[in-house]
């Protein structure tokens, strides 16, 4: 597996976003999830992304069980900062944000127990809490680094201005935001530029457009009741029909190269820079293997230009989040 640099870590060029193994995308089977994690290790994947809210809690417990024996071989990232109802097992449980120093400490301690480890490699603020200055939140995260409970800290879905303020308080190792062919906000809002200016690795989540860019996703009406995508505007029929035509360009390019649409979409993300480390999710081993193999797919300048033009932001139909979730991003 090719590797890329994230702060003091060398991580696999393609990581694994673990949310779907126990949360958000329909039914999950623990034995299948454990098998997927084992196969990821076999393939050289060493960068695993989870969060307190995934499950909730269950995803960290799953990773603790799966990775404990290989702990010194992997980099584990987790997150705090959402408030939620623990009895829910879909995104309906999110009720707000809590970036208080007290919550930063409490969640870190609980995550350490669930992950069965004595240190969190990368600890992210999941979303900015508008009631707490970013300097206060990052200051508390920095103290966890000083105490040896966290190795590096990151932010998720923040603005360039917030990143700079945070970085002035303590070095930020990584910024995680959604980035794919059909979600390219970070190119135009200064976030990618700020990351490069400050030497912050950029970690795209949902680099396959939550499965839509693979061309294989069922219509939204056929997704299970607990599937998060049922609430997303882009997946609704009136928008999905428009977006499906864009995906045909990916499929045509994939057919010409003898690869899959998912591999083309992921190769495009990888080609945006060596400082970019995508974390596609995969519930099933064949999807995981396909994602890992994308590191060997080459796109030439003409390929990239065609994809850039096809997926220009004005061509994508529908917003990426409903209003309540959108309001929590890019603060």
TL;DR of this structure?
This protein is of the alpha/beta class and 331 residues long. It has helices at residues 30-42, 58-67, 101-115, 134-146, 160-169, 185-188, 191-198, 237-257, 261-270, 285-293, 301-310, 323-326, and strands at 3-6, 9-12, 16-17, 47-49, 75-80, 82-84, 94-97, 120-125, 150-156, 174-178, 201-205. The strands form 3 sheets. A 7-stranded parallel sheet has the order 3-4-5-8-9-10-11. Strands 1-2 form a two-stranded antiparallel ribbon. Strands 6-7 form a two-stranded antiparallel sheet.
Topology:
Blueprint lengths: L2 E4 L2 E4 L3 E2 L12 H13 L4 E3 L8 H10 L7 E6 L1 E3 L9 E4 L3 H15 L4 E6 L8 H13 L3 E7 L3 H10 L4 E5 L6 H4 L2 H8 L2 E5 L31 H21 L3 H10 L14 H9 L7 H10 L12 H4 L5
Parallel strand pairs: 3-4, 4-5, 5-8, 8-9, 9-10, 10-11
Antiparallel strand pairs: 1-2, 6-7
Helix pairs in contact: 1-2, 2-3, 3-4, 4-5, 5-7, 8-9
Descriptive notes:
With 331 residues, the chain is an alpha/beta fold. 38% of the residues lie in helices and 15% in strands. A seven-stranded parallel beta sheet has the order 3-4-5-8-9-10-11. Helix 1 (30-42) links the parallel strand 3 and strand 4 (47-49). The chain starts with a strand and ends in a 5-residue tail after the last helix. The model has no long low-confidence stretch (mean pLDDT 94).
């Amino acid at each position: 597996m090719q590797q890329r640099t994230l702060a003091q870590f060398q991580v696999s060029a393609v990581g694994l976003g673990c949310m779907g193994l126990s949360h958000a995308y329909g039914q999950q089977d623990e034995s299948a999830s454990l098998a997927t994690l084992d196969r990821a290790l076999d393939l050289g994947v060493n960068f695993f992304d989870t969060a307190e809210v995934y499950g909730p809690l269950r995803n960290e417990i799953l990773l603790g069980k799966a990775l404990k024996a290989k702990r010194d071989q992997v980099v584990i990232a987790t997150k705090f900062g959402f408030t939620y109802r623990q009895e829910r097992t879909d995104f309906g449980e999110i009720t707000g944000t809590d970036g208080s120093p007290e919550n930063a400490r409490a969640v870190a301690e609980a995550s350490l127990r669930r992950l069965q480890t004595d240190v969190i490699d990368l600890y992210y603020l999941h979303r900015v809490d508008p009631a707490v200055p970013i300097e206060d939140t990052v200051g508390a995260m920095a103290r966890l680094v000083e105490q040896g409970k966290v190795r590096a800290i990151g932010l998720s879905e923040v603005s360039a201005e917030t990143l700079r303020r945070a970085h002035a308080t303590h070095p930020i190792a990584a910024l995680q935001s959604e980035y794919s062919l059909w979600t390219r906000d970070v190119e135009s809002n200064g976030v990618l530029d700020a990351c490069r200016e400050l030497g912050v690795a950029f970690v795209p989540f949902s680099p396959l457009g939550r499965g839509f860019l693979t061309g294989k996703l069922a219509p939204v009406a056929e997704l299970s009741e607990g599937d998060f995508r049922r609430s997303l505007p882009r997946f609704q029929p009136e928008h999905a029909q428009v977006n499906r035509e864009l995906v045909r360009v990916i499929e045509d390019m994939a057919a010409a190269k003898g690869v899959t649409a998912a591999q083309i979409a992921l190769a495009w993300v990888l080609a945006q820079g060596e400082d970019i480390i995508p974390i596609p999710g995969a519930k099933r081993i064949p999807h995981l293997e396909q994602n890992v193999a994308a590191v060997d797919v080459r796109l030439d300048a003409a390929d990239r230009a065609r994809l850039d033009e096809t997926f220009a932001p004005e061509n994508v139909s529908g917003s990426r989040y409903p209003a309540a979730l959108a309001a929590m991003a890019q603060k």
